[in-house]
């Protein structure tokens, strides 16, 4: 329930900034290069065609009712982590998702695809570590800041 509300909040934030938004999208990944066909659920995808054109693929973690996302939960070796955060640790999966999105939505090649983790709360001691890990892999951490109107009404940049 809390996760659904957080996903709706993230989607509404992007919609308010003139993004085209889809929530809870089931994406069927075709079999290729020894990979079996599978499917993934994308919490939120948000497309902006303004300059520069961007497609955000957002995995939402509400962390309501907890102390927030911590490094051990995010980077641990448990099966829960491997399922919950797999898109952030598996570059092959990200590439498959991106290519399938490009084909499904017929996205032009100039659209940059950005994978993001939206976390309602991150433990202060681990925030920089998680953000650094994501940045090293070309990924972004969206915390409370996108929800605080850091973007001007004319801007579609989300940081």
Rg: 15 Å
Question: What structural class results from the helix and strand content?
Answer: alpha/beta
Proportion of residues in extended strands: 25-35%
Using the alpha-carbon principal axes, give the shape: globular
- Secondary-structure element string: HEEEHHHHEHE
Number of strands: 5
Largest sheet: 5 strands, mixed
* Name of the CATH first level: Alpha Beta
Describe the 3D structure.
By secondary structure, this protein is α/β, with parallel strands linked by helices. It is built from six helices and five strands, in the order αβββααααβαβ. It has helices spanning 2-16, 71-75, 79-84, 86-89, 91-104, 124-136; strands at 20-29, 38-48, 54-61, 112-119, 140-142. The protein has a five-stranded mixed sheet. It is globular. It starts with a helix and ends in a 17-residue tail after the last strand. The model is unreliable at 146-159 (pLDDT under 50).
Quick synopsis:
The chain is α/β, with parallel strands linked by helices. The protein has helices at 2-16, 71-75, 79-84, 86-89, 91-104, 124-136, and strands at 20-29, 38-48, 54-61, 112-119, 140-142. Mean pLDDT is 83; it is low at 146-159.
